Prior knowledge:
Two copies of one chain form a homodimer. With 432 residues, chain A is of the alpha+beta class. Chain A is 38% helix and 23% strand. The first copy, chain A, has helices spanning 2-16, 29-38, 40-51, 53-64, 74-87, 144-163, 187-194, 246-257, 299-323, 351-362, 377-381, 411-428, and strands at residues 93-94, 100-104, 113-119, 133-135, 138-140, 171-177, 202-208, 215-220, 222-231, 235-236, 268-277, 283-284, 287-296, 332-341, 344-345, 368-372, 386-389, 397-398, 406-408. In chain A, the strands form five sheets. In chain A, strands 1-2-6-3-7-17 form a six-stranded mixed β-sheet, with helices on both faces. Chain A has a four-stranded antiparallel β-sheet with strand order 4-5-19-18, with no helix packed on it. Chain A has a four-stranded antiparallel β-sheet with strand order 11-13-9-14. In chain A, strand 4 (133-135) and strand 5 form a beta hairpin. In chain A, helix 2 (29-38) crosses helix 10 and helix 4 packs across helix 6. Chain A starts with a helix and ends with a helix. At the A-B interface, strand 10, helix 8, strand 11, strand 12 and strand 13 of A face strand 10, helix 8, strand 11, strand 12 and strand 13 of B. Strand 11 of chain A pairs antiparallel with strand 11 of chain B.
Amino acid sequence: MLSAVRLSISLPLALAFGASGAVAQSVNHAADVSRILASPAFKAAAAQLDREHGRIVDEGIKLTEIPAPPFKEEARAREFQKMLQAAGLPDAKIDEEGNVLALRKGTHGDGKVVVVSAHLDTVFPAATDVKVKHQGSKLYAPGVGDDTMSLSVLLAFVRAMQSANIKTRDDILFVATVGEEGPGDLRGVRHLFTKGQYKNKIKSFFSIESGGVDSITNGGVGSKRYRVTFNGPGGHSFGAFGLVNPMFALGQAASEFSRIQVAASPKTTYSIGVIGGGTSVNSIPLSGWMEVDMRSESMPDLKRVEDRMLKIMQEAAEGENFARSTKEGKITAEAKLIGDRPAGTTDVKTDLAQFAKAAVEAGGYKVSYRWSSTDSNLPMSLGIPALTIGRSAPDRSGRSHSLDEWIDVEKEPMVKAVTTSLSIVLAATGME
Amino acid sequence: MLSAVRLSISLPLALAFGASGAVAQSVNHAADVSRILASPAFKAAAAQLDREHGRIVDEGIKLTEIPAPPFKEEARAREFQKMLQAAGLPDAKIDEEGNVLALRKGTHGDGKVVVVSAHLDTVFPAATDVKVKHQGSKLYAPGVGDDTMSLSVLLAFVRAMQSANIKTRDDILFVATVGEEGPGDLRGVRHLFTKGQYKNKIKSFFSIESGGVDSITNGGVGSKRYRVTFNGPGGHSFGAFGLVNPMFALGQAASEFSRIQVAASPKTTYSIGVIGGGTSVNSIPLSGWMEVDMRSESMPDLKRVEDRMLKIMQEAAEGENFARSTKEGKITAEAKLIGDRPAGTTDVKTDLAQFAKAAVEAGGYKVSYRWSSTDSNLPMSLGIPALTIGRSAPDRSGRSHSLDEWIDVEKEPMVKAVTTSLSIVLAATGME
């Protein structure tokens, strides 16, 4: 009864904070986290994470070395499904989109689930060497941190909860998503929330990523991605010299794009990630293209950069058509939207964020809030509380999305971070 | 004797014209061509070319539809070898480099040969659709003109000479070369002149190309080709925003390169033919590259553009290192020479050029001299008389090196041009 009264009092406040989930003034989050950390079951789970450090690392390496380029996560998904089944969730399955899902029932499930997820895919193309290299306690490999070691941590969570017989109020849906990175355009998590069997049944969402556990991502950076193609008539590089060349328009566009000025806050960024076109050195090519990525913490700022980019592309085509002959045809610029991630936020006053903050602080870390572009963007944009949380000690990973990506797996700081990460999940799902 | 005297008189003149072959004032080229054209044997050969028009076209289509990308001419070479054997030169073989060679002995061979060649390769990559499309008397296909139909014309030459029992003074070496186009960098003809069994045994050289028979290429345009790569540290497009991006340097370089001013004469050209780099839209890439082609009728002008291009590349890297952070590493620019074609000329006063001019004029065409970059560059640069000649009527081909390349095979103008082309070869090789 009491709690019902409190809920009715807090309702106007919740509405005041909009769609980011119920704001609960009623719960003492820090006290609840303390209770959990002091419980024999949690201590048993923590002890198991400590004993299993080597296994977490080994399984992370094993999964890292199964390539999982965008749209080609299947081999890794199948292996992860098996590992999740072996970890204690025999019903783990792969959904229509390729996500791996496994439900762990709670004691007082309300028909809704809390998702605890990591992503299967990496940014790296199929041919990338994904062999893990060791250097002291550092592991180097494309994708080892972002986000493969988190998959291994999910497995460790499940094993620890099973062996310590941990009970949570809420049903937990463990998920390994496909398509978190660039070209995937959140296809896995989008399917989960808008098409799959748990559509409308997810009440909150965690994505576990490579970063430090002290850093809580409660802002989803919006992004727009385009493939811009300049087409022209082509021709012989000597015989047809003087005709418009799409590469010159492309170069001019890239150069002008590089001169856009953006504010440091709200953080807004832009990049050219991939470029291509042409078939032989001695031909004026038929086309040249580039893939551009624009992101912002602010939707208006994102729109501003997007509009400018689109204008630059048109001007570059026009400039080339003015500079050289169009007698065989003009340069045209075509911009195709290939990625469109909604922005969103999870209010720091939501239960979800408050539990996360309390657990991180109980672990002895100083919380910082961040904006990023992760699977959490999708639920955030739908008004469903979502956080992307870390599972490593601060500053123990780096060079994400580059071939020299690394993480440090030194035992003590890693186990402490993983344990803290688990405590966030257990606090938010109502460990008994 | 008379001719010996005349030769001794003309010697100082020959020396005055340098290494472009003996200048013969002694021969009445036009009269010799008239004699050939009036001969029953030539008339029989011409009649056969007329009868075989359909076959020439069909064999050209057949060869066009066997892809022959740079470095992958083998399938087409094998087929052409068989066809050449069937045409009457059973000893046709493929040399170490991949060229198809077949010798037709002359009556007074001096141990040296006159090469009559066309090239096997096209500029188009392996996946290109090379199916020939018909539109009236026009054939559309990548490579159909440049230079595949010339291979078919070589076969027709051989059949016509065999069936009309034509005798030439000189040995003729029919050759289908590999590597004429861009990346091949003249590897076929280079092998022929510098390594193969006919090294030092070639006294003059014809390359038969797509253009009008009225146009004689006696100038070999020099070219320099580079693959320029910008390397940088890479990183996450949002997290590492602010780091140097190789694509921005590439864009700036391409844009600045496009602004180079060149004289119309001596003709000097530049182009970006292929561009690439990066692996995912949401990563700052490790590298971006472009392949540039620079050509000139003048070696000093070529050097001037080359020097400027190399400077632009360095400046673009420096500019990017100044514009953004280098804390994870700098942008570097690396320029690799991937093509280096010597320039050269064949003096219009050489016997070779005089016979060609007389035969073209006897065909009723008005001669024009041209510069181009063809297999003839190599012998020209060695001081061996060489010409690239056409085999179609004027303005009956176009859009070379583009996907909508075409030739017009209308019977009467085509047969007339092919016959004239044959008369050039027969005049130069001393038809009896």
